[in-house]
Amino acid sequence: MEMTADRFSSAARAARLAVWDAAPRPFVTPSLLNCNFARVGEELDALRKAGVVGVHLDVMDGHFVDNLSYGASVAKDWRRVTDFPFDTHLMMSDPGKYLDAFVDAGCDIIVVHIEVLPNPVPLLRRIRAAGCRASLCLNPPTPFSAIAPYLDEVDAVLVMSVHPGKGGQSFMPEVLDKVRAVRAARPALPISIDGGIKPVTAAEAVAAGATQLVVGTGVFRPDGNYAAALAELAQEIRRGSQRGSVPTETAGLPSHE
Ligand code: DX5
Ligand code: ZN
After folding, report:
1. Which of 27, 72, 125, 167 has the fewest CB atoms within 10 Å, measured from its CB?
2. In sequence order, what are the beta bridge partners of 137?
């Protein structure tokens, strides 16, 4: 079963990122936080059969957020059994300290929080130099102006729609103004949204301009029918897309250069 070393090569990463880039958007990336960790191989298989393109890994350090989840060694074991692109959300006080471990583990998109990075540019450049995609994330209270100066340094922005730290919380609609602000500032930049996404909120997020929806408890529902959950989400995403792209009202947002 050790035909997997190749999954850690830079060519394998480039191939995964090509799949990621080619995926029709908006799309759903399930967060594995709420999957059954005793059966991750089976969970990944079920997601693949349901048409998922990539998965979201929530890394919690017990310091930046209250909870602990898992680290790079776990991600590395998962990489041995899947070709899914790993969208890796580092909810950590010191993401730079652990970046190399996540790159070596076969992670592909690395998401770091602006709240812990007075100047995110060196870390974003390290992420890209490693062959990964760099994404900047902002928590609900953090204004768009905090990330506005760095939009040329990122491949994506992730807007948190709950306070990070656990799954199953309620969506905070007020963050959609930040999605609109990013969309207005960079019409082509991928925008992810994370937290409390269910069919109704998925439509709202897409209408505001989100291109990637991170969904935890909304996919890993108790009946185990992930395909049905994803189909319901897809239906509402289509509705949200049709509702018409990007509202222009950005009144009340912090100004930015
Ligand atoms: C929140 C995490 C999310 C979250 C998603 O701390 O970053 O990825 O677990 O879970 P739901 O969809 O249940 O909010
Ligand atoms: Zn996340």
Report:
1. 125
2. 113, 158
